[in-house]
Specification:
Blueprint lengths: L1 H16 L2 E2 H10 L4 E6 L5 E5 H8 L9 H15 L4 E4 L7 H11 L3 H10 L5 H11 L3 H22 L4 E2 L9
Parallel strand pairs: 1-5
Antiparallel strand pairs: 2-3, 2-4
Helix pairs in contact: 2-8, 3-4, 5-6
């Protein structure tokens, strides 16, 4: 029994050190919506996004014959997640990412003080996101915003990986993280 436990620990340790592509974590952070969740499988190194409907089907142990084959696989994965939750780490959802704070920091990062001030004051109160998008278009800094946001999301992914002991690689499409 002890030998089996040691093999399992060794397997878990090895897979946690198998690098995951940072881009996969970033995609999982960005693709989630109100009806989905993302997880990192510590054993396989896979990043999964599971829809609420599939998760519920797995919880209720529904007969899979009524589902298309591709969905059966997703439900089986969700069932594994439920049965072996210690093998998975939840990837932050969009609610864990403070987009408003990212916007504030972007406003404060603008070197032109007039634009910085106007942007910063535009995000106060109701309708802040709409006004912000209008202002970045008006000032012609939309690309700057999206680049800044992408870097902030990448940094969240890097921090999450580091906090969870997950080794990652940065491919040629992912800009270097400082």
């Amino acid at each position: 029994m002890l030998e089996k436990q040691l093999k399992m620990k060794k397997k878990e340790f090895n897979s946690m050190n198998k690098p995951v592509k940072l881009e996969e974590i970033i995609n999982a952070l960005e693709i989630q919506n109100d009806t989905s969740m993302a997880f990192f499988n510590k054993i396989t190194g896979e990043v999964l996004v599971i829809d609420e409907e599939d998760y519920r089907a797995a919880e209720e142990d529904k007969d899979l014959r009524g589902y298309p084959e591709w969905q059966r696989d997703v439900i089986k994965t969700a069932k594994d997640l439920i049965d072996n939750e210690d093998n998975y780490i939840r990837i932050p959802s969009k609610y864990d990412i403070n987009e408003y704070e990212i916007i504030q920091n972007f406003c404060l990062s603008i070197s032109d003080q007039r634009i910085s001030d106007e942007l910063y004051y535009s995000i106060k109160g109701g309708g802040a996101f709409r006004r912000f998008k209008d202002m970045i278009k008006r000032f012609g800094i939309e690309n700057d915003w999206y680049q800044y946001r992408d870097e902030a999301i990448k940094q969240i992914a890097v921090d999450w990986c580091n906090e969870n002991g997950i080794v990652f690689t940065i491919d040629s499409n992912t800009k270097k993280i400082k």
